[in-house]
Specification:
The complex is a heterodimer of chains A (116) and B (113).
Chain A lengths: L4 E3 L2 E4 L5 E6 L6 E7 L5 E8 L2 E4 L8 E4 L6 E5 L8 E8 L10 E2 L3 E5 L1
Chain B lengths: L2 E4 L3 E5 L4 E3 L1 E4 L4 E8 L5 E7 L5 E3 L5 E5 L4 E6 L8 E9 L6 E2 L3 E6 L1
Parallel strand pairs in B: 2-12
Antiparallel strand pairs in B: 1-4, 3-9, 5-6, 5-10, 7-8, 8-9, 10-11, 10-12
The chains are: A mainly beta (116), B mainly beta (113).
């Protein structure tokens, strides 16, 4: 059973371009989370999705950032008109939904975005 | 709002010495607590978790942590470290019933031979 997959692993963009980060959850997992890790900091929650539905986007910046998790295919985190401050590692995690109050999150290797 | 404080940004220790990485949290509700390890250029791996029950939690790679509700702490310990334990360690908390994790700033553990 493959783990959480993210691609690309490294992404370089110039200011003003768009960045698209993809996350394929573990097989059988229906929930996806995105976190951002700025240099020398811990991870910060961005958004929590299940297929075709955003559950919690309280950590998403109000502008330029969007996320989706379609019925088919990977989850996408999209950053429009990137700025230098968007340079960070973006981690995706997935979990099964077992109806309990705790669903363990399994993390992918991350996408390291560099904005020139 | 929840917050997690990891009191040491870096901890250097000698191989086979004991280590303690400190974590304090604040929350107005009951919580779940976690320790994750991040090796260079990799994602996070769960070391251990506290959900309920015994306050002493044992995890992988010989690590353990103790939940202290009165001191709102969840310190991570290992009696004898190895070179392979060199990594960044993150403490995290989530509200019971919520799914998002709130992370501390991380502690870089460096093992010297």
């Amino acid at each position: 059973n493959a783990g959480v997959m993210q691609n690309p692993r490294h992404l370089v963009r110039r200011r003003g371009q768009e960045a698209r980060l993809r996350c394929s959850p573990m097989k059988g997992h229906s929930h996806v989370y995105w976190y951002r890790q700025l240099p020398e900091e811990g991870l910060k929650f961005m958004v929590y999705l299940q297929k075709e539905n955003i559950i919690d986007e309280s950590g998403m910046p109000k502008e330029r950032f969007s996320a989706e998790f379609p019925k088919e295919g990977p989850s996408i985190l999209r950053i429009q008109q990137v700025v230098r401050g968007d340079s960070a590692a973006y981690f995706c995690a997935s979990s099964p939904f077992e109806g309990s109050s705790y669903n363990e999150q399994f993390f992918g290797p991350g996408t390291r975005l560099t904005v020139l | 709002a929840q917050s997690v404080t990891q009191l040491d940004s870096q901890v250097p220790v000698f191989e086979e010495a004991p280590v303690e990485l400190r974590c304090n949290y604040s929350s107005s509700v009951s919580v779940y607590l976690f320790w994750y390890v991040q090796y260079p250029n990799q994602g996070l791996q769960l070391l251990l978790k506290y959900l309920s029950g015994s306050t002493l939690v044992k995890g992988i790679n010989g690590f353990e942590a103790e939940f202290n509700k009165s001191q709102t702490s969840f310190h991570l310990r290992k009696p004898s470290v190895h070179i392979s334990d060199t990594a960044e360690y993150f403490c995290a908390v989530s509200d019971q019933g919520a799914q998002k994790l709130v992370f501390g700033q991380g502690t870089r553990l460096t093992i010297n031979p």
